[in-house]
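Lab notebook, bench 4. The sequencing result for the construct came back, and we need a structural model before the next group meeting so we can plan mutations. Quick request posted to the team channel:

Model the 3D structure of this chain.
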Amino acid sequence: MDLGDDLSTRVDALMDGLVADLKRLTAIPSVAFPGFPPEPVREAHDLLVDLLRGAGVERVERLDLPDTAPVVVAEVPPPAPGAPTVLLYGHYDVQPPGDEALWFSPPFEPTPVEGGLRARGIADDKANIIVHLGVLRAFAGRPPVGLKIVLEGQEEYGSAFDDYPPTDPDRFACDAMVIADMGNLRPGSPTLTTGLQDPREARDLLVTHLESLRPFGIPLTVTPGDTGPGYEPATDGPAYRAARTALREGWGSEPAFVASGGSIPLVNGLAEAVPGAEVLLFGAQDGMCNLHAPNERVLFSELRSAVIAEAAFLREYAKTYGDSATHADSAGARHE
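Done. Here's the predicted structure in token form:
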């Protein structure tokens, strides 16, 4: 289904339903940390399965790993031989709310704010999952590319899934990936994250600096926490060319390329499993959304633009993939 010039109109017609589903999803306290009940995590998983099936995805499976919340793995076959396959990633677990006295409203009661909604996990990462859902609905379940949809339930705490993809590469075989666990530097400014800096190196430098301070001659004992690995994708392939066009369509201006100080542990596992696939990081978050902090929020304008951008990316990538001389290398990584 090619939406052509009707894409923004189609997305506008979907927004009320997408916001309603975002409220349903964020009302579930799906915290996958020790000490929190597992039932809400399973409830969020089951809701996503229902939403995907309702959007026309027939093949929806559950991946279970030891001591890991269930992973939703869904697939939409390519519409024609030779069409590319894109993996869409997100996570449905959230950070603990922290001190609820610091919140302006209960963290798991989605609450209107100017231009958006406030709730724990609404930006990180449930709005980005709703973006994937919106794209499926915009194409009436028939996108112009094949899709593999991976929604994990224990990203924030970490799990065996971080290292799983290289052990099962066929499951994740694709030509490009959209890792929707990122967003823009600021609202309205489209951003492609092209580097996840190595937090381990930054952490060690900080520890060395703090230990050298010795305020008033008192030595400091600094205990470093865990970190995730860094990652830097190639940005000169057909998927990035399509993404630049798509983000410009979604937000109305040229996208910026930035590196992030955070890390997404699964990205390295996916890149190892499918080394020929291009990896894109963008989404509906923004630098002012308070992720991992009290009063986390998402803006409806960012949600709308992200749906348009992701749908436009699938459309543009489908058009340019077959004409690109570079697609042969990534096609070999699909194990077809």
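The two ends are 24 Å apart (CA to CA).
Will bring this to the meeting.
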